[in-house]
Amino acid sequence: KRGFLDVIKHVGKAALSVVSHLINEGEH
């Protein structure tokens, strides 16, 4: 199950990066 949690963390970080990118694109 630890591997599963690692996947969740990885996906979460990726999602955060995408959201931040979209927000930055929207502001400019």
Description:
By secondary structure, this protein is mostly helical. The chain has one domain (1-28). It has one helix at residues 2-27. The chain is rod-shaped and about 40 Å long. The N and C termini lie far apart (41 Å). The relative contact order is 0.12. The model has no long low-confidence stretch (mean pLDDT 93).
Written as H for each helix and E for each strand, in order along the chain, the element string is: H
Oligomer: single chain
Number of strands: 0
Helix count, per DSSP? 1
User: Which term fits the overall shape?
Assistant: rod-shaped
Largest sheet: none
Structural class: mainly alpha
Instruction: Tell me the strand percentage band.
Output: under 5%
The end-to-end distance, rounded to whole angstroms, is 41 Å
| Uncertain stretches | none
Question: What integer value in Å does the Rg equal?
Answer: 12 Å
Report mean pLDDT, rounded to a whole number: 93
| Overall domain count | 1
Helix amount: over 70%
